[in-house]
Write a structure and sequence with these properties.
The chain is α+β, with helices and mostly antiparallel strands. It has 6 helices and 13 strands. It has 2 domains: 157 residues, 3-Layer(aba) Sandwich (Aminopeptidase); 84 residues, Glutaredoxin. The model has no long low-confidence stretch (mean pLDDT 92).
Length: 249
């Protein structure tokens, strides 16, 4: 097993591959947006640890107090993403990355680690079944099947912010809350915009560009949240088939 791991820093951020499977040799709007987003987060204790390869083998986590998610707790880490893909699966990389996060949390005196899950595995969310092997347990839920998974070291627990349980907004049109953490978001937005323009579908895109906005969102959020007819739909990025299913509701 290759053990050549790298942690991104403000010094190496401009030169390192960001691991997601966008491999364009040209400047990519989504990748550069993520670099800019990360450049502001790294000084807040945000950790992006990756295998030194051009492939998705990485973990990304941050202190919960500064994590752009509507989850409340003290002295926790929040895992945004743990992704091992393709030929790197089944070789112990996910275990190694999770163990690094656990060790880091304990060395820094954290109370525990939490992450977003669901009672049925969703794409674009780290595997909750894998997390449960390390002792993560469900400590909070929403009415539409999302869970807060937590590994507590001191019996304290985080929780979803009260606003998460609303799962409704006043606007009835297709509404998407997003930030620029994921490199796929820019291109997904363009696909949705083009479809909505061609099909006369009213669309509202709301960029979450501050920590305060993220903490106050009316739904669970990892970097993306979709509403339609005033009701929360998903944290998944949308292909056209998924978008069409939502619009038929």
């Amino acid at each position: 097993m290759n053990i050549d791991f790298i942690n991104l820093t403000t010094e190496n951020l401009g030169n390192e591959h960001l691991c997601c499977i966008i491999r364009s040799k040209k400047l990519h709007q989504g990748v550069e947006a993520k670099r800019k987003w990360l450049s502001c987060r790294l000084n807040e204790g945000h950790v992006f640890r990756k295998l030194n390869v051009q492939a998705p083998v990485f973990i990304e986590y941050a202190p919960l107090e500064t994590a752009w998610v509507p989850i409340i707790g003290n002295n926790y880490y929040y895992i945004y993403c743990l992704w091992v893909s393709g030929s790197y699966k089944g070789k112990g990389y996910a275990k190694s990355l999770m163990e690094y996060c656990l060790t880091d949390a304990k060395e820094k005196g954290k109370s525990g680690i939490c992450m977003l899950g669901a009672n049925k595995q969703k794409s674009w969310l780290s595997s909750q079944s894998f997390a449960k092997k390390f002792g993560f347990e469900i400590v909070d839920t929403t009415n539409n099947g999302y869970d807060l998974l937590t590994l507590s070291f001191d019996e304290t627990i985080p929780k979803f912010a009260e606003n998460v349980k609303k799962e409704e907004i006043e606007s009835k049109e297709l509404t998407i809350y997003y930030d620029m953490q994921c490199p796929y978001i820019s291109q997904n937005i363009e696909i949705i915009k083009q479809y909505c323009e061609l099909n006369d579908v009213p669309l509202s895109l709301i960029q979450v560009d501050t920590l305060e906005k993220a903490k106050e969102l009316p739904c669970v959020f990892n970097n993306w949240g979709v509403f339609y007819k005033g009701c929360f739909q998903t944290v998944n990025l949308l292909d056209l088939a998924y978008l069409q299913r939502i619009l038929k509701k």
